[in-house]
């Protein structure tokens, strides 16, 4: 009688493999059924969300492109106006800047407005320039640094006819260490103190400006000179190490300050 050969491992594995295949087919069928169910019930909302997302992305990319194009165009217009100014065509440049300020916003508008006011001041139209600076200072659509600079320019241009109390009220908030306009605003505040015959307040302020390394060097050197005239020591290591050119610049008339009153050198005589 012939014996039946023993079953091998491969024979036992066949049913297991068939069972795995069957389970996978069942899983695939279940997933397909679930996907069909989701598509039938949520297909339109999902498609709408995807389309909305793509449209939003496209809109954002277009907006970025548009902003870059606009910025480039505004910068080009500003450059053309400055070129006209340097070529001696001040009135044409001022008109271009006035149009640019009306057509733009933010930093471009601020730069155009302040440059236009500066041209008016250079043309001897002081009243018009002061008014233009005042308009820029009150324009809440401009970035704050431009508005602060407009106030400083306005007070500098109108210093002789403006009460010292008004100068102090507008500029003291800017004349503090750490403020970007500490040097420019601080100079005018110091002159206003001298106008009020308060050298005891002006001297320490000029000394603080002279010792602040964040203040432009020319302003520091002028302030050092004024502080010394008022009997306040403003010498520090930075000023000691200044070059001969810087020391020569320090001996220049104080009236050379771009934002200072016309004859600041005479201020200490009011003591």
- CA(first)-CA(last) distance: 138 Å
Number of strands: 0
Number of helices: 11
- List unreliable stretches of 5+ residues: 237-250, 252-271
Number of domains: 2
Q: What is the average of the pLDDT values?
A: 76
Per the principal axes of the C-alpha atoms, what is the gross shape?
Answer: elongated
3D structure, described in words:
This protein has 271 residues and is mainly alpha-helical. It folds into two domains: 101 residues, Serine Threonine Protein Phosphatase 5, Tetratricopeptide repeat (Alpha Horseshoe), CATH 1.25.40; 109 residues, no CATH class. The C terminus is likely disordered.
Write the layout of secondary structure elements.
Elements: H1 9-86, H2 90-103, H3 106-122, H4 126-138, H5 144-157, H6 164-171, H7 182-195, H8 199-211, H9 217-229, H10 237-240, H11 244-250
Protein traits:
mainly alpha; 271 residues; 11 helices
Gist of the model:
The protein has 271 residues and is mostly helical. The chain is built from eleven helices and no strands.
């Amino acid at each position: 009688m012939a014996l039946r050969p023993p079953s091998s491992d491969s024979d036992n594995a066949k049913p297991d493999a068939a069972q795995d295949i069957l389970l996978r087919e069942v899983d695939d069928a279940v997933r397909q059924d679930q996907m069909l169910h989701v598509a039938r019930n949520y297909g339109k909302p999902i498609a709408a969300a995807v389309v909305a997302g793509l449209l939003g992305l496209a809109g954002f990319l277009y907006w970025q492109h548009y902003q870059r194009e606009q910025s480039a165009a505004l910068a080009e217009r500003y450059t053309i106006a400055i070129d006209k100014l340097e070529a001696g065509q001040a009135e044409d440049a001022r008109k271009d800047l006035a149009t640019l300020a009306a057509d733009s916003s933010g930093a471009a508008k601020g730069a155009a407005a302040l440059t236009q006011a500066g041209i008016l001041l250079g043309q001897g139209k002081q009243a018009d320039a002061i008014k233009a600076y005042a308009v820029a200072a009150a324009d809440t659509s401009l970035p704050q640094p431009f508005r602060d600079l407009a106030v400083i320019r306005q007070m500098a241009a109108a210093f002789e006819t403006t009460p010292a109390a008004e100068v102090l009220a507008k500029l003291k908030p800017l004349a503090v260490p750490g403020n970007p306009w500490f040097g420019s605003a601080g100079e005018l505040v110091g002159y206003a103190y001298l106008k009020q015959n308060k050298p005891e307040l002006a001297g320490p302020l000029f000394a603080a400006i002279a010792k602040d390394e964040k203040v432009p060097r020319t302003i520091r050197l002028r302030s050092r000179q004024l502080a010394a005239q008022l009997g306040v020591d403003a010498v520090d290591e930075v000023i000691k190490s200044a070059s001969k050119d810087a020391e020569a610049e320090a001996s220049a008339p104080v009236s050379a300050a771009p934002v200072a009153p016309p004859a600041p050198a005479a201020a200490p005589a009011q003591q």
